[in-house]
Amino acid sequence: MEKKGFVSLWVGNVQSFEELDRLLVVSYSDEGDFIPSIFAKSFEIHRYDDTVREAEYYKEASNDLNQLLEGFSYDDEIVPRFDTLVKEELPNDINAVVLLYNFGPMSRFSTN
After folding, report:
1. Could you tell me the pTM of the whole model?
2. Residue 39 within a domain
3. Is residue 31 part of a domain?
4. Which residues of 9-36 are buried (b: 16+ CB within 10 A; e: fewer)?
5. What are the pLDDT digits (tens) for 52-68?
6. E strand or H helix at 63
7. Burial of residue 88 (number of CB atoms within 10 Å: 0-12, 13-18, 19+)
């Protein structure tokens, strides 16, 4: 869901840069309809702006989120904020990071 000023973070493990790239590829039908990536389908994301997505694969996995986020856009702002949220090292070593800018949490609600 598009939310100005939000940054959403996904972390995980993949076998290679090529696999990460394959998971993130979006396409369009002949009629111009958006076909979500494997990543988007996995998280039930109907659409996001691929031009404000960053992703990185690391040959050496780490559980230090600060280190993993170093070098991303706005890292001087997002690293301290995610550090405050996580408050400690990640429970597992990871080698893949995906950031979606201007994409916030999805609200779920029901009406009676």
Report:
1. 0.83
2. no
3. no
4. bebeebeeeeebeebbeeeeeeeeeeeb
5. 899 999 999 999 999 99
6. none
7. exposed
C-alpha closest to that of 27 among 38, 18, 17, 16: 38
Tell whether 22 is covered by a domain.
Answer: no
Q: Tell me the per-residue pLDDT of 60-103, one tens digit each, with 9 for 90 and over.
A: 999 999 999 999 999 999 999 998 888 878 888 999 999 999 88
What does the buried/exposed string (b/e) look like for 38-70 if buried means 16 or more CB atoms within 10 Å of the residue's CB?
ebbeeeebeebeeeebebbbbeeeeeebeebbe
Pairwise CA distance, residues 46 & 88, whole Å = 32
Tokens of 60: 């050496």
Structure tokens belonging to residue 30? 């002949």
